[in-house]
Amino acid sequence: MIPPSSSVFKDMTSDLVAVQITVELFVATDNLHMDLASLAPLAKYTGGDMRYYPLFREAFRGEHLRQDIQHMLTRETGFEAVMKFRVSPGYQLKSYHGHLFQRTRDLLVAPNCTEDETFGCIVGVNKDFSGPQARSVCIQAALLYTSSTGERRIRVNTSQYPKSLDVEQVMASCDAQAAAIIMGKYAINESRNVSDARKYLLDTTQAALAGPNARLENLSALPG
């Protein structure tokens, strides 16, 4: 979690997104000391990715690099993509995670959207929200993009999740791998240093492992 030495590349991303440019970084170097923290926003906020090959030697890592470039060029890709999330009344979208550019509170932009991309969001419940509508939450994700054949398409996914006061039931139905990934992303993005990230992960995990005796308000930090 080394802070970037310069914000010049991050400042460029809004201009790149405006003209639908995605940056894919292949950092192959024999130097161990690279300012990856400054370079990373170029890929993160334009829908791209950064691949790092430390101590690169063509004889040992050349084939790996070639395969990665080939996959990047041949994978299924959507262009000029925008994504919008919605949740049912009584709930709110707290944050998003993924390689994209957040244009407004609920509108996300990714010049290139590929089959390898995964996006996540953290959903919170409003205080004092009750009644029949509070028994479940609906989450809708809509993706508008242009296919490789030039067709403008939209994909809409709407899911409904029941709300339960039984902590054991919640834990049994939780996707542990997805929750761990989002928790890790949240810790990295929202923490200023390793100590803060570690504390967030420990506190959240302890709240989750408290079991049936855990108070629901202690689980508010868990991804929704």
TrEMBL record:
GO terms for molecular function: SNARE binding; zinc ion binding. Residues 78-162 form the Sec23/Sec24 beta-sandwich domain. This is Uncharacterized protein. InterPro entries: Beta-sandwich_Sec23_24 (IPR012990), Sec23/24_trunk_dom (IPR006896), SEC23_SEC24_subfamily (IPR050550), vWFA_dom_sf (IPR036465). One of its GO terms (biological process) is intracellular protein transport. It comes from the Eukaryota. Residues 3-72 form the Sec23/Sec24 trunk domain. It holds the Pfam family Sec23_trunk. It comes from Perkinsus marinus (strain ATCC 50983 / TXsc). One of its GO terms (cellular component) is endoplasmic reticulum exit site.
